[in-house]
Every structure is written in C-alpha cells, then in structure tokens.
Design goal:
The protein is an alpha/beta fold. It has a single domain, classed as NAD(P)-binding Rossmann-like Domain (Rossmann fold). The chain is built from six helices and seven strands. The protein has a seven-stranded parallel sheet, with helices on both faces. The two termini are about 30 Å apart. The mean pLDDT is about 100. Bound molecules: NADP nicotinamide-adenine-dinucleotide phosphate (NAP). The site of NADP nicotinamide-adenine-dinucleotide phosphate has 29 residues, from helix 1 and helix 3. The site of NADP nicotinamide-adenine-dinucleotide phosphate (NAP) has 29 residues, from helix 1 and helix 3.
C-alpha cells in the first residue's frame, strides 16, 4: 500500500512503539491520528491526538464514527504483566486480555469495514508463537491476537492485514530487560512500513521471531 497520503490511526501512540509508529508514519507522508487514554500525552509533531481507551466500547465506536477517513489502523496498545500460570492473578490475567486481545478485536471490528484498499496492522509478539513462562498470561493474549489476526485476514479480504512479531523492544514495557536483549522501536517500525509497501502480511522483526516462527513451522 502507498503510505504517503494515507490516513492512519495508531493506538497507544503516546509512548513506546506506538509513538515511534505515529512519528514514522507522519515522516512518510501520512495523516496520523494518535489514540491514547489521555490525549494530552500525545505530543509528537504532526500527530492528531484522539481519546481512545481500547477497552472502552463507547470511545472506540465514537472514534470510528468520527474518523471516517482512516484507511490504516495500527493496533499497538498493549500491557504486560509478569506471571507464571500457577501464580497468575486471575483479575490481572483478565485485564491484560481486555487490552491486548479484546481491545485489538474491538478496534478491528469498528474500523475494519472502512479499511478496504488499506491496511490493518496488529502488533503481536514472538510470544504469539511460543509462551514465555514468566510472561505466560501476556503470551496467551498474543497467541489469541495472532489467531484473530489470521481470521481477520480471511474476512477482510480487500484489506492488507499485517501481523507484527518481535522479541523484546526497548520501551517501558521491557524496562527490566538488559539492553543487549532488546531491539530499538525503529527496527520494528521500519520492517512494518516495508511490509506495508510490499503488501506482505507478516513482519518478523528480529532474529528471535524468525527462529521461533521457523521452529513452529518445523
Ligand atoms: N516492548 C516489548 O518488548 C514488546 C515486544 C513485543 C511486542 N510488544 C507490543 O508492542 C505494543 C506496544 O508496547 P510498548 O512496548 O510500546 O509498551 P509501552 O511503552 O508500555 O506502551 C504501551 C502503550 O499502550 C497504551 N495502552 C495501554 N493500555 C491501553 C488502553 N486500555 N487503551 C489504549 N492504550 C493503552 C499505553 O498508554 P498509557 O500511556 O495510557 O499507559 C502506551 O501508549 C504492545 O502491543 C506490546 O505488547 C512489545
């Protein structure tokens, strides 16, 4: 798809990977709406702040009703929590599913019908392919999000549906991870923009994602 001249909505655009997506899309010539729970926290030049908590059905419906020019959605908003299966707090596990899986699905439902000829980018993870023990409930949300992304690709036949997989990225979410084990957000963003331009449906942004996908296929 042509990014220059497209109209994008990025969820969770106020910091981390979402901020990097929003700024790169502006630089590539797109009009960009930056969704955030607190729109005042969207401060990037050229990004139009929009109040958007992906767990709030009314806010998502209102955004879709108002932003009728959007033809590219980046479902980026996400949360993480450290939890093994046996020690996970069930309320926390439900909440993370609300954001990472149901929030992504809610935004996809609201905007999907207007994306024909455009694209839906879902930010997934290497954890979609293989759970990490200490991030087990997070991994489950990313496996669910990968599954619904595949189904969305079938249903939104005229829309490029892209799944983005990466290991640790240098953002607040991975603050505890040593620097040598993280990639910069720009690496994920650049790989995604390349995939959009080339019409590719899957981004494997780093070696660990490529290895995990290959092991799954094998
Ligand atoms: N960092 C990694 O290692 C890594 C690896 C693979 C995939 N990912 C994925 O990359 C995406 C971005 O994460 P990040 O690394 O940039 O993390 P981050 O720096 O913690 O940013 C998370 C973003 O999501 C937003 N968010 C959280 N709950 C929300 C909600 N209910 N509605 C709307 N926005 C919400 C946050 O907004 P607030 O400021 O309001 O909290 C923030 O903008 C996530 O989907 C994550 O799972 C991250």
């Amino acid at each position: 798809m042509e990014i220059h001249g497209s109209v994008a909505l990025v969820t969770g655009a106020n910091r981390g990977l979402g901020k990097a997506y929003a700024e790169a899309l502006v630089a590539a010539g797109a009009k960009v709406y930056g969704g955030a729970r607190n729109p005042d926290s969207v401060t990037s030049d050229g990004v139009i702040p929009v109040q958007l908590d992906v767990t709030d059905a009314e806010q998502v419906a209102k955004a879709a009703a108002e932003l009728t020019d959007v033809n590219l959605v980046v479902n980026n908003a996400g949360v993480g929590v450290l939890a093994t299966p046996l020690t996970a707090n069930i309320d926390d596990a439900r909440q993370i599913m609300e954001v990472n899986y149901l929030g992504l699905l809610r935004v996809s439902q609201a905007f999907g019908p207007q994306l024909a000829g455009g694209a839906l980018v879902n930010v997934l993870s290497v954890a979609s392919f293989r759970p990490l023990l200490t991030l087990s409930t997070y991994s489950a949300t990313k496996a669910a999000a990968w599954s619904i992304t595949t189904a969305l690709r079938e249903e939104l036949a005229d829309t490029l549906v892209v799944g983005v997989h990466a290991g640790f990225i240098d953002t607040d979410l991975a603050a505890a991870v040593p620097p040598e084990n993280k990639i910069p957000p720009a690496q994920v963003v650049e790989a995604t923009l390349e995939a959009l331009r080339a019409g590719e449906t899957e981004v494997l942004a780093d070696d660990i994602s490529r290895l995990a996908k290959a092991a799954l296929v094998a």
